[in-house]
Amino acid sequence: MNDTKQRILFVFGTRPEAIKLAPVILHGLDRRMEFDVRVCVTGQHRQMLDQVLELFGIKPDVDLNLMQPGQDLFDLTSRVLLAMRSVLREIRPVWIVVQGDTTTVWTAALAAFYEGVKVAHVEAGLRTFDKRQPFPEEINRRLCTQLADLHLAPTAQAKANLIAERIDEADVVVTGNSVIDALLWVCARMKQTSIPDVLAVEEWAGKTIGTSPMVLITGHRRESFGKGFEEICAAIAELARAFPNYQWVYPVHLNPNVQEPVNRSLRGIGNIHLTEPKTYPAFAWLMQRAALILTDSGGVQEEAPSLGKRVLVMRNTTERPEGVDAGCIMLVGNSREGIVKAVRAHLGNPQDLQVDPGRNPYGDGRASQRILDAMAQRSR
Ligand code: UD1
Ligand code: UDP
User: Fold this and answer.
1) What predicted TM-score, i.e. pTM, was given to this entire model?
2) Which fold has domain 195-359?
3) Is the CB of 116 inside a 6 Å radius of any atom of ligand 1?
4) Between the CA of residue 328 and those of 293, 295, 357, what are the distances in Å?
5) Mutate which of 12, 14, 15 for ligand 2 pocket (most atoms within 8 A of beta carbon)
6) CA-to-CA distance for 46 and 38, rounded, in angstroms?
7) Which fold has domain 6-177+363-378?
8) Sheet with 35-41, edge to edge strand ranges
9) Which of 22, 118, 189, 261 is the most interior residue, by most CB within 10 Å?
10) Are 6-177+363-378 and 195-359 the same fold in CATH?
11) Boundaries of every domain in the chain
12) pLDDT tens across 141-154, in order?
């Protein structure tokens, strides 16, 4: 065995972490002379995680299978922390690699710190500077910054945030966001081969929405649970009635706090289509098909501009100001009034619906390579 070869353990648990780490893992497996790649999934998500593992053909070495229905933050945090102790002691990696701001991320980083394992944090440095929005992600990523040894920042702005927090510049590398690597990968695959889920969504769309213009919706943020979701749903219902020629497609997140209000408020309105969460290729197809995207998702904000789509973000704060500055995304808040006003303005002006994909500030599809180059450099 090459004695400079580093054992790196990828740890992730939810759909967006899996999508954003999959290209890094596949690239790491291609560089097997440099890296001994291992994968641990916490299973913070189950169905939505498995969709991604299957797509990218990733077989975890360890699956902690921790998801419980309606899990709360106390249970999840303590279960991940305890489970990671034996994983780290058995696998003994030099590094763990985590991505983003979920409970899996910061808790696995804490476990690694306790065990003396170095932490590489992908998508480091995002900040809203409001500790309650997004909740709990803003605090999760700040905690992860304190625990990390290598900070892989997607943009120069994210790097500047870290430097302002007195993180050593030598430990920060700007890489772009690996979500663009994943998106380009999936779009290339869709061109090369027929993917059954894409054929199915195309057939469904052909029958159900025909040639009508379509608005694609997702939403799941914890700070919007309760009143926020009531407002979001009221806005969508009002808009669907005001624009009956538009079809409104909403793959609903499996969190029961999302399922309940969305199904109660929106099921039964003729031009609103509530569906199960789509697999990544099917969702990418829907993004391409959409006239406009309405979301509170972090990943969707980063991806959609690469497909030339404008995104209205149903949140009050963003940790992704680059997209706003580039004119790709617009923050519209989560009140009924704000959402309705912004969507009306956009649907009334079709020229406002498209963005130039070249303006996407989140990456060029080579983040995975830069992430692993940065890690390889630190082993020398
Ligand atoms: C989590 C992350 C959030 C991330 C989001 C991406 C935390 C605290 N939250 O939020 O940062 O943006 O994932 O989607 O880390 N469920 C299923 N099947 C699944 C996934 C979820 O049934 O495949 C249901 C379960 O009842 C589960 C609940 O959703 O208990 C909540 O899941 P959880 O991961 O705690 O929160 P999310 O809202 O998914
Ligand atoms: N996504 C998907 N199927 C869906 C909805 C979203 O594959 O039905 C993808 C989307 O393209 C993006 C990621 O999931 O890459 C975003 O996940 P989510 O919104 O759950 O989390 P966030 O990015 O807000 O943390």
Assistant:
1) 0.98
2) Rossmann fold (3.40.50)
3) no
4) 11, 13, 9
5) 15
6) 19
7) Rossmann fold (3.40.50)
8) 62-63, 35-41, 6-12, 95-99, 118-122, 150-153, 172-174
9) 22
10) yes
11) 6-177+363-378, 195-359
12) 999 999 999 999 99
